[in-house]
Structure formats: C-alpha cells, structure tokens
C-alpha cells in the first residue's frame, strides 16, 4: 500500500495516487469523504504486477477519511497519515492529509 502526493503550483490541488497490492482481486476502488464513499467514483486500475493504482485530485490543506474497497471488502491503508474512528461504520478509517 502506498500514498503518493504531488502538489500543483498553479492550483490549490494535490494529486494523490493511491495504490494497493491485490493480485487476486477483480475490482478495487478508493472510497472516502472526498467522493461521498462512492465505489464507482474512483476505481483503481490493475497493473501487470497485481497492484491497483489510481489518482484523485484533492483540495490542499484538508484531511480526508478513506478506505480501499477490494471485491466488496473495506481495507485500511497501512501507509495512511493517520486513522480516525467513525461511529457510522463502527470502525477506524484511514486518513490522508494534503
């Protein structure tokens, strides 16, 4: 798992690339507070090495809760900046700070 951040000089945006190793998975997406937890909003593309990867534009100077949705199962990112308890999900969510 990995999170890569690329800040744009021209806009207050950060391009955040999410990646997760899931060789056996058929469908992976990143869901979070930045996309209303919509699985169709940010699908990740499977690479030849079995890693799923995708980039999302996020507003700078903000924090977002997120999880990976791997074949219907929610998974936290071990490389997250932090974790936050979510009463609605009754579980911890990964947090990315940009």
Description:
- The chain is mainly beta and 98 residues long.
- It has one domain (2-97): Immunoglobulin-like.
- The chain is 0% helix and 55% strand.
Q: Can you lay out the helices and strands and say which pair or pack?
A:
Blueprint: E1 2-7, E2 13-21, E3 28-32, E4 45-46, E5 51-59, E6 63-70, E7 73-75, E8 82-86, E9 91-97
Antiparallel strand pairs: 1-2, 2-5, 3-6, 4-5, 6-7, 6-9, 8-9
Please outline what is shown here.
It comes from Seonamhaeicola marinus. InterPro entries: Glyco_hydro_13_N (IPR004193), Ig-like_fold (IPR013783), Ig_E-set (IPR014756). The protein is mostly beta strands and 98 residues long.
Largest sheet: 5 strands, antiparallel
Number of helices: 0
CATH topology: Immunoglobulin-like
Summed over residues and divided by their number, the pLDDT gives a mean of 96
In CATH's first tier, which class applies? Mainly Beta
Please provide the count of β strands.
Answer: 9
**What Rg do the Cα atoms give?**
13 Å
Tell me the distance between the termini: 18 Å
Helix-strand category: mainly beta
The low-confidence parts are none
Named CATH architecture: Sandwich
Strand content: over 45%
Helical residue percent? under 10%
Q: CATH homologous superfamily name?
A: Immunoglobulins
Overall spatial form: globular
SSE series: EEEEEEEEE
How many domains, in number, for the residues?
Answer: 1
